[in-house]
Amino acid sequence: MTITPNRHPEGTPAGGQFAASTHPEPEGISLTTPEPAEELCDECGDEKDDDGTCMNCQCGECGETLNNGEGYDGLCGNCADAEEGGSQIFDMQLRNAEGEYSDFSVNRLDDGHYEVEDGDGNAVLEFYHSGDEEDHDSIQENAVEALNGAGHKVSE
Predict the structure, then answer these.
(1) Can you say whether residue 61 is alpha, beta or left, with left for phi > 0 and alpha for psi between -120 and 50 degrees?
(2) Are 106 and 94 in contact (CB under 8 A)?
(3) Cα-atom radius of gyration of the chain, to the nearest Å?
(4) What is the pLDDT of residues 14-27, one digit of tens each?
(5) DSSP letters for 59-114
(6) 155 and 144 in contact (C-beta within 8 Å)?
(7) Between β-strands 101-110 and 123-128, what pairing exists: parallel, antiparallel or unpaired?
(8) Are 65 and 76 in contact (CB under 8 A)?
(9) From CA 139, how far away is CA 129, in angstroms rounded?
(10) What is the pTM of this model?
(11) Structural contact between residues 80 and 73, judged by C-beta atoms closer than 8 angstroms
């Protein structure tokens, strides 16, 4: 029968000279986790929200960014125009079949009822939108669809 001798000296922790053992930390060393740095808004310097923007740089009405220099009093250009004039909610540039761009405005006539004006302020057509009145993308899609249905052949 073969006897295997112990491979570490008596009185030392198992694992030899490199075995884990308890010892005090050196003075002046701290092993705490640092707090993550606050991310600050590029525009105003306030703390950013979870979505990467801060409330001071968002429209108080629709949540759009205010960093384009339009609007006033905490509202984006579209919402400020709508509040001031009572009906215009946004402008849009659409490309026609020849590839040229034309300006249009979308005005709210009443709940779910809208009007499209050309760049000269002339009423082009009216349409209905049954979705969220603050969802400008959806309203614009309906406006483009209505313009195309009336023969204007435009795209975003």
Answers:
(1) alpha
(2) no
(3) 33
(4) 666 676 777 777 78
(5) -TTT--B-TTS--BTTB-HHHHHHHHHSSEEEEEEEEETTS-EEEEEEEEEETTEE
(6) yes
(7) unpaired
(8) yes
(9) 7
(10) 0.45
(11) yes
Cα 132 from chain centroid (whole Å): 18
Return the residue matching tokens 């991310």.
Answer: 39
Q: Which amino acid is at 43?
A: E
Structure tokens at 20: 């884990």
123 forms beta bridges with 117
Instruction: Decide if 98 contacts 154 (C-beta within 8 A).
Output: no
**Amino acid sitting at position 138:** S
Structure tokens at 156: 């975003």
C-beta neighbour count of 46 within 10 angstroms: 14
Token code pair at residue 82: 């709508």
Q: Are strands 88-96 and 101-110 parallel, antiparallel or unpaired?
A: antiparallel
* pLDDT tens track for 12-59: 566 666 767 777 777 887 777 777 677 777 667 777 766 666 767 777
Tokens 């309906």 -> residue: 142
pLDDT tens-digit map of 78-124: 676 666 544 778 888 999 888 999 999 998 887 788 889 888 888 88
For residue 21 the two structure tokens come to 């053992």
